Each structure stands twice: as structure tokens, then as C-alpha cells.
């Protein structure tokens, strides 16, 4: 049976950093499902397709070849990893991700990936929908202030100039859309282990998760 680790939580909880380290430790393929929603948002913006144009949007998504190579998102042969992190994409992605038809197409793609590879997948609906049968599920949280500060530092490091307050507002707005949308809202799966990362280092969180995985693998849980 394939190994599947699900990591969910709100923006800035540390999911992607932590999932990447976990992937190396357990030799898993890291799938950043948020990047896929960001990729759809980028291509929609480039092609002037608004979230209301559901039919055109679905046709566009079906025409895309999307895969990960060394944790980089490649769409139709182009590495879009940097562009999808820009604030104009962050500000719009939750609107596209709230559309049921968009989710259906991307969830299907994500399920196919999990059948081909041992994966650690991060997102909003991984433990509840995409990998609902996964034996290892985690839900990472942190206070909105800590999450906004992390995102702010990350953008500055990448040379993107931003105001802390704009990032904070974006995080609050996305939390609201992600948790209240009808289609697969962000929520902790009943069987997920919740970890508040506000005051923990990346390695501490990864160690907690690794211990849980190892204990469960050797049937001690
Ligand atoms: O990295 P960050 O936490 O800022 O967000 P992300 O993981 O890149 O996801 C961007 C957005 O995509 C989220 O705010 C959600 O609106 C959406 N998303 C989703 O709806 N379902 C997922 N499985 C992953 C992301």
C-alpha cells in the first residue's frame, strides 16, 4: 500500500516548509496543492478568465499540463513557481479555489498523483477529501499574527516589497473564504493530529510528526 501523509491548515501555519522536510525524511513526493490552485489563478488572469466564467475556466484547466519537478510547479512546460507567490495571485486564489468545478478537477488530479507515488500533500481539504483514507493526518495552526509575520518575512526575503498590514488582511480574508465556502471548506479532519506551530521550530514540528508516523507504522498507536 502507498504511504500518504495529509497536512492541512490555514495560510502561514508552516505547512509547505514542514512538508518538504518530512518528504525528505520519509522519501515521499511533496505535492503542494495550494500551488496548483495558484497556478490555475495565474493562468486565468493571464487569459482574462474571471471566476464567474466557469465553463471557460474548466476548459482552460483541462488544457493545462501540470506537474511538479523538484518541488517546482511546471505548467505547460513553464516553471511558474515564483510568479504564483506574488501578492496579486495570493489576493485572488481563494476566489478561484472556492468554485466547485475547479476543485473537482484539481482534486481528481491530486488523487491520481497519490495513486502513483508515496506522497505528503498539503492544502486545505487533504485530510477531509483528497486523502480521506490516509493513515497519517495533521492539522497545523498558528495565530494570525504569527502567520502574517512569517509570510511577510518570506516575501521580503524573496525581494517582494510588501506592507505587513496588507499581508495580515490578506490572511484574514483568505481564512474567512477558505473556512466558509460550500465546497470542501478548510477544517480539521476528525482523525487529524492538531499542532499549534506558533512557538515551535520547524524541526520540533517535524519531529513530533515523525514520531507519530513511526509509532503508528509500528502499530504502537
Ligand atoms: O501557502 P499559503 O498557505 O499562503 O496558501 P497555499 O497553500 O498556497 O494555498 C493558496 C490558496 O489555495 C488557499 O488560501 C486556498 O484558498 C486554496 N487552496 C484550497 O482551496 N485547497 C487546497 N487543497 C489548497 C489550497
TrEMBL record:
InterPro entries: Cytidylate_kin, Cytidylate_kinase_dom, P-loop_NTPase. The keyword Translocase does not apply. Its main location: cytoplasm. One of its GO terms (molecular function) is CMP kinase activity. Keywords: ATP-binding, Cytoplasm, Kinase, Nucleotide-binding, Transferase. It is found in: Cytoplasm. It catalyses: CMP + ATP = CDP + ADP; dCMP + ATP = dCDP + ADP. GO terms for biological process: nucleobase-containing small molecule interconversion; pyrimidine nucleotide metabolic process. ATP binds at residues 9-17. Pfam families: Cytidylate_kin. Its EC number is 2.7.4.25. One of its GO terms (cellular component) is cytosol. Gene3D superfamilies: P-loop containing nucleotide triphosphate hydrolases (3.40.50.300). Residues 5-214 form the Cytidylate kinase domain. HAMAP family: Cytidyl_kinase_type1. Belongs to the cytidylate kinase family. Type 1 subfamily. This is Cytidylate kinase. It comes from Clostridium liquoris. The lineage of its organism: Bacteria, Bacillati, Bacillota, Clostridia, Eubacteriales.
